[in-house]
Each structure stands twice: as C-alpha cells, then as structure tokens.
Amino acid sequence: MADGDDLFPGFESLWIDGPSGRWFARAGGREDAAPLLLLHGFPQSHAMWHRLAPALARTHRVIALDLKGYGWSAAPDSEGGAAYAKAQVGAEIVAVMERLGHVRFGLAGHDRGGRVAYRLALDTPGRVERLALLDIVPTFVQWERIEANPGMNPHWPFLARAAPEPEREIGRDPDGYFEDLLRQWSAAKDLSAFDPRALRLYAQAWNVPERIHAMCEDYRAGGAEGADRAADRADLAAGRTLPMPVLLLASRDYLDRDKPEPALDVWRRSFAPKAEGVSIASGHFMAEETPEATLAALEAFFAR
C-alpha cells in the first residue's frame, strides 16, 4: 500500500505526464460521472481532501490533484516565480485534465489551489462548469490589505522574498515552520484537526528542499509585484468576470475574522458579481476542521 492509500479508499493513484513534468492525483467515482477537480492549498497536498473526496465521488468523478511543486507532482526549478504564475499553472492543469479525458469540469480550490482555480476560470471560462473557492479573496485584494496593515499575513511577503533567503530560513526547521502555520490558522490553534496520516504526507513534501523552493516560487508569483497580481489588475481593467456559477466558502475564524469587508462582498465587487456564499464556523482548513459543513455546501452546489 502506498502512503496515503488508506485516506482514499477505492481511489486510483494516477501519474499524468503533462507540461513541466509528471503530476500526481487520486481519482475516484464512476468514470462516466461528471468530473470534479479538487485543488489543495499551502502547505498541503491532495491529502487535505480525504474527508470529502469519498462522499463527493458518489456523484462525480473526483480528481484530487497535487499542484505543481507540492505533494508528489513535479517541482521544476524557477526564478522569480516564473514557472508558478497561476496563469501558467492553470493552463498546465487544463492540459492534464484533457489527458484524463475531461474537457469541461467542476472545480473547487482551497487557498493556493483557489488562486489557481479562479485564474484558470478567468482565462479559460469554457472549461469550468461550476467554481467553488474555499477561503480566499483575490490576490490583488490580499495585497491591498497587507499594504494597509503590514502585520497581516506576514508569510506572504516573507515567502515572496528573493531566493534563497526564505528557503534557507525554512530549511533550518521545516517541520517547525509549517506546523506552526497549521496551528496559527486553525480555530483550535493546534494540530488536532489533522489526521496524522495526512500530516505525514504534508511533511514528506515540505522537508524536500526543491519543494520548499517551489512553495516560495508560488508566493513570488503572487508577490506584490508578481505575475498574479498583474493578471488580476489586467482583468479588472478589462471588466472581465467569471461567467459560471461561483460559490465562496468563507471561514469565520480566519478569512472573515476582523476584516473590514466580508470576502463574499469582495468577490461580488470584483470577479464574481453573482457569487453565492456560505459562512463556515471554522479556521482556515475547513475541509479538515469542519468537513461536515464543508461537504454539505459543496454537495449542494455541485449537484445543481
């Protein structure tokens, strides 16, 4: 049994040759069912979906993919975030899904996976049937908030610093750094919400220097002057919005806590004017902290 197989009973382990190398995914559900792609967040992997994926696979062909540089997917070298710009990663994921036989699909993304998801949906709207975003605001708004309150989300500017400064600092104690973030962003401020098997999978990846570098490159692409913010600004200037149904799941104890504007309002005034929202009584890791409420919202949305 491969690591993590017991978290996804009945799922296949897929290795897909695609742009920038091989991608890893778990896939479950009937092959003729409507495809639903799940994209994880930082600093995790596909394993974050383990409490939701089996239930979602009752009605969909579920593909839980490791993002480029995370989990077991390839982590190509990069400078200045070039290989990890969300527009590029999204285009590569479209190619991966085509190789699996899926031209159109439902899409749900948490955290960094949410940033890839909304960029993919803005750039190639014909690919996405329905879009669920878990616990994010657009990148341009995130930076406006950080610039207005420099103490907010300090990991964003830290990880976006030029290489190799953050890589070296994290490399001194990767477990300490990443586990501390999991604690900070969870409602309980500890690791109790995380299955030890999932934590082992996360740690396998975040202890690899090339993957630490890839995660920093992900944040460099989303940095204050990075490609992701520039792409947001270009779409805002063009008046481009998401045409498909959009669901935002917002955590009360992380995303919307003490914020000047609810996340749903942010999406409605920017890229998703018709978005619907569900507030989840959770910390940031809602798929693991509050799986019942998160699953109920996703099932209702993707069943339509």
TrEMBL record:
<protein>
    <submittedName>
        <fullName>Fluoroacetate dehalogenase</fullName>
    </submittedName>
</protein>
<dbReference type="Pfam" id="PF00561">
    <property type="entry name" value="Abhydrolase_1"/>
</dbReference>
<dbReference type="InterPro" id="IPR000073">
    <property type="entry name" value="AB_hydrolase_1"/>
</dbReference>
<feature type="domain" description="AB hydrolase-1">
    <location>
        <begin position="35"/>
        <end position="287"/>
    </location>
</feature>
<dbReference type="InterPro" id="IPR029058">
    <property type="entry name" value="AB_hydrolase_fold"/>
</dbReference>
<keyword id="KW-0378">Hydrolase</keyword>
<dbReference type="InterPro" id="IPR000639">
    <property type="entry name" value="Epox_hydrolase-like"/>
</dbReference>
